[in-house]
Amino acid sequence: MSVDAFASQGSMLLTPKHEVHKARRQPLNPFFSKARVSSHQDMIDQHLDKLCDRISVFAESRETFNFGAAITAFVRDVAFDFIPGKSYKSLDHDDFDEVMVAASSGSGQVWRASKHLRG
After folding, report:
1. Is-above-0.85 flag for pTM?
2. Which residue in 40, 66, 80, 85 has the fewest CB atoms around it within 10 Å?
3. Which range has the top average pLDDT, 7-16, 21-30, 37-46?
4. pLDDT tens sequence across 30-48
5. Are 80 and 87 in contact (CB under 8 A)?
6. Rounded to 5 degrees, what angle do the CA atoms 100, 39, 69 make?
7. Residue 5 has pLDDT above 90, yes or no
8. Which of these, 96, 15, 98, lies nearest to 55 by C-alpha position?
9. Exposed e or buried b for every residue in 18-52, given b needs 16+ CB within 10 A?
């Protein structure tokens, strides 16, 4: 178990108390309100349609593909379109931009190791 991770004294993960977590989260709340997410439903649907179309092509050709990379590409495209407003078009890559999957998977290993280091 990691305690005091990332110099956040008394915390099990990153935030020591509910009040502190709430205060830290508050600036982000407007980005993830129900109204804001609903206003982006068309964009989410467009990415979902693209994902489904790509999967259909693979199904028709009976060609295998990395489903995890496909889902990750969908999530990445939605997240980047939603938050910074810039799409990397991972769903358009033939391999669903698997290089990004490998890069982000590697960051988890770094976090698991670094969470035990004192700040």
Report:
1. no
2. 85
3. 37-46
4. 888 888 889 999 999 999 9
5. yes
6. 20
7. no
8. 96
9. eeeeeeeeeeeeeeeeeeeeeeeeeebeebeebbe
